[in-house]
Write a structure and sequence with these properties.
Elements lengths: L20 H7 L22 H5 L8 E4 L4 H9 L8 E6 L10 E6 L2 E6 L2 H17 L7 E3 L5 E5 L25 H17 L3 E3 L12 H14 L5 E6 L3 H6 L9 H17 L5 E4 L16 H12 L5 E5 L10 H9 L10 E6 L23 E6 L15 H8 L12 H6 L9 E5 L15 H12 L5 H12 L5 H22 L31 H5 L5 E2 L18 H6 L9 H4 L2 E2 L10 H25 L6 H33 L11 H6 L7 H4 L12
Parallel strand pairs: 1-2, 2-4, 6-7, 6-13, 7-8, 8-9, 9-10, 10-11, 11-12, 12-13
Antiparallel strand pairs: 3-4, 3-5, 14-15
The structure holds beta-D-glucopyranuronic acid.
Length: 711
């Protein structure tokens, strides 16, 4: 590759299909002022590229110098066509160990920018960095080096082969299991571009509840075609696999990971995949969890299962992401089970296995303490699994900006190796022999025109990528970036109103759904509304809200202290001591760890009951506040965007009322204490009512669409 460059000679070879007349103009150093146009109206499908679409910033387009032509570099040239905050930008492949595969360096000499990186994909990330600077920051180019926090910055799609999306609230899957049509290619390319713009570089195409069919020759062929489309944007694919695949697809008598024929089948399958997809990134596996098959079916361990797959992938450089989301219907407290199953296996996994651990010990609740497994595995590479789709935070109806939650987990100190053992650090540090660090987010993407079911939920996709790239970014700064690129005309005071809404939203959701450490008091099945009363005959106890809230005449909350399940002891000191004592346990985890008397005095002097009422009321009040804030910015936001979000905020408010009344009226049966605030529903009516959230159209309405009479 020719790494020399010149400010005067554009050496890009223009041969690609994506080369447009405009690119030619850029390549020839023309400025294109005739493209200048007024700012376009908001187009939901264009995500955070609104300003890009709106046209040119100024007449002075930078002269873009790229000394090679690869599909990725042609994208760089195309993306850079509107770059205008420098006179010239030169993109160079160099050899600089400290930048790794994806890192880049941006330097400035006069008004010429020099971008250096080891790969063309890293140059693409740098191009998006420069464009972000143009759209987000004021003034000239900021020089800096940037190396991502994780090697795999990964979306996990929970998409099924029939086009449905598990816990998806944005329509059907974007993946079409056919040879990609021009329309499919368009969507996949838009998706890849969006991911690359925020640094997402690995995607698991299908649901962790995986169909064995995913590994049929027919499907692998389509995976290869999708991978070909995503590759120029630096994206590598993985698939979720079903542990019984060799039985279903090849008729083997079992899937015992120590059986030679089973091991051989996986090796052959890996060879078949890599013959079509040389940069295939690996497998994601949910095994022996929620009824799925796994090595425990054959009295083998998780490490036996994971290592068998790891051996099959290893010659090709592939990775196994083995999930720790396990909880058998045993006696042990569900919150303890992942630790109990995986901690004894520490050190037994091959070095191309990563244990993928959900942020909390239960399941993506609005707030959980971090999973204690993060603080327990010392000789096993770990990755955090976060949820971008809002399974437990109001689906695509509620405003809930999630980086505040994710960073709470990543910045949590596990004390594994003493102070400073944050989850961010433990998951970024690579153990000896390990080549890849990873972070996963369960995608909130579907085929809705706006991709995420709610315009504002696009911010969570954006933020996941940015945070995965740099865990030192703040939720606040990411919000600012997203707002400025999504609502390019918004004045600073209105921007700060919207940013406040985003930043405050998650805490509001916690307050009106499950304050003070309450968790999993959701309605059966859909996880949208509250049903603390839910009792499905014959169902597993650990799928029932009563298993978690334990409300009785004495008090409220799970018993996980030293008199209960002793889950507190899975945390390292000093957290174990802090959490074990009801008087030192932080308020936000109080009812997670303790069954607390209704008249217990909180740190602020209120009784538990009064504090619970205050929190629910505060959450509800915040939904009124969000509506008022959104009203204030109406004249600065595109009408379609404004109306859509307004509608969702109204649903959120009605749902918050439902949560407030349902939970407080239900718990009041036990506390027998007065609710200071007004309730408007009748508990008996609420308990008889079941919202049909499995119906997608109905789900879009939340409780608002329902006809339940208020008192
Ligand atoms: C739960 C979801 C379920 C998923 C499961 C998982 O309710 O649909 O299959 O997690 O992560 O949150 O495997």
């Amino acid at each position: 590759m020719d790494t020399s460059f010149s400010n005067h000679n554009m050496k890009l070879h223009i041969s690609s299909a994506i080369c447009s007349p405009l690119m030619l103009a850029v390549a020839l150093g023309f400025s294109s002022c005739d493209r200048q146009s007024p700012v376009s109206p908001f187009d939901a499908h264009s995500l955070w590229f609104q300003q890009h679409k709106a046209g040119l910033h100024s007449d002075n387009k930078a002269h873009v110098i790229i000394n090679d032509s690869t599909p990725t570099l042609r994208i760089v040239a195309d993306e850079m066509k509107d770059f205008s905050i420098a006179d010239a930008v030169s993109f160079n492949i160099v050899s600089d160990e400290k930048l790794g595969h994806d890192g880049y360096d941006i330097s400035l000499s006069g008004s010429t920018v020099t971008v250096s990186a080891n790969s063309d994909v890293a140059l693409l990330y740098a191009a998006f960095d420069l464009l972000r600077q143009q759209h987000v920051e004021v003034g000239s180019v900021r020089t800096h080096s940037s190396v991502p926090s994780y090697d795999f910055r990964m979306l996990n799609h929970w998409d099924n082969l029939d086009g449905t999306v598990e816990r998806g609230y944005a329509g059907h899957s974007i993946w079409q299991w056919r040879t990609p049509t021009p329309e499919d290619i368009k969507i996949y390319t838009e998706y890849a571009r969006a991911n690359a713009s925020v640094g997402i570089n690995t995607v698991v195409l299908n649901n962790v509840n995986a169909s064995p069919e995913m590994l049929s020759a027919e499907h692998i062929k389509i995976v290869a075609q999708i991978a070909d489309i995503l590759r120029p944007y630096g994206i590598r694919v993985l698939v979720s696999v079903n542990f019984s695949s060799p039985m279903v697809l090849a008729g083997l008598p079992d899937a015992d990971p120590l059986r030679d024929s089973v091991r051989q089948w996986w090796k052959d399958k890996a060879d078949e995949i890599y013959s079509l997809i040389p940069d295939f990134a690996g497998f994601l596996v949910k095994a022996n969890s929620e009824g799925l098959p796994g090595p425990l079916d054959y009295h083998r361990s998780h490490s036996d299962g994971a290592n068998m797959l790891a051996e099959a992938l290893k010659p090709h450089g592939g990775i196994v992401l083995w999930r720790a989301f396990v909880y058998s219907p045993s006696d042990a407290d569900r919150a303890k089970q992942a630790y109990l199953e995986f901690q004894p296996l520490d050190g037994q996994f091959l070095d191309n296995v990563i244990i993928q651990i959900k942020n909390g010990p239960i399941d993506f609740q609005p707030r959980e303490p971090f999973s204690p497994l993060f603080g327990a595995l010392k000789k096993t590479q770990m990755a955090a699994e976060l949820q971008i789709t809002q399974e437990y935070t109001g689906a695509a109806n509620h405003l809930c900006y999630l980086p505040t939650m994710w960073l709470e987990t990543l910045n949590a100190d596990t004390y594994r190796d003493g102070q400073g053992s944050t989850i961010a650090r433990l998951t970024q540090d690579k153990l000896p022999g390990v080549k890849v660090s990873a972070i996963a987010g369960v995608a909130n993407i579907g085929n809705d025109d706006n991709w995420c079911g709610n315009h504002i939920a696009q911010s969570n996709w954006y933020a996941f990528g940015r945070m995965a790239w740099d865990t030192n970014l703040t939720a606040d700064s990411i919000a600012t970036e997203w707002i400025r690129q999504t609502m390019p005309d918004i004045p600073r005071h209105a921007e700060s109103t919207v940013r406040d809404m985003l930043i405050e939203s998650r805490e509001a959701v916690v307050d009106y759904m499950m304050p003070l450490g309450l968790h999993h008091i959701f309605a059966w099945g859909h996880h949208y509304g509250p049903e603390p009363w839910c009792a499905v005959p014959g169902a597993r106890p650990d799928w029932m809200p009563t298993y978690y809230h334990c409300a009785d005449s004495v008090g409220l909350g799970s018993r996980r202290d030293l008199n209960g399940s002793k889950a507190v002891l899975q945390y390292n000191a000093p957290l174990s001591d802090l959490y074990a004592d009801v008087n030192t346990c932080p308020d936000e985890y109080l009812l997670w760890f303790h069954h607390v008397n209704w008249d217990f005095r909180m740190k602020n002097g209120r009784t538990l009951w009064d504090e619970l009422c205050v929190r629910y009321d505060h959450g509800l009040a915040m939904t009124v506040h969000f509506l008022a804030s959104w009203n204030r910015v109406q004249s600065y936001v595109d009408a379609n965007l404004w109306n859509d979000v307004q509608h969702k905020l109204e649903i959120q408010h009605d749902d918050a009322r439902w949560w407030h009344d349902g939970c407080l009226l239900y718990f009041q049966q036990f506390s027998k204490m007065p609710i200071p605030q007004k309730t408007i529903y009748n508990l008996d009516d609420m308990m008889k009512f079941h919202i049909n959230i499995t119906n997608y159209e109905n789900a879009k309405q939340g409780y608002r669409g329902e006809k339940l009479v208020k008192e």
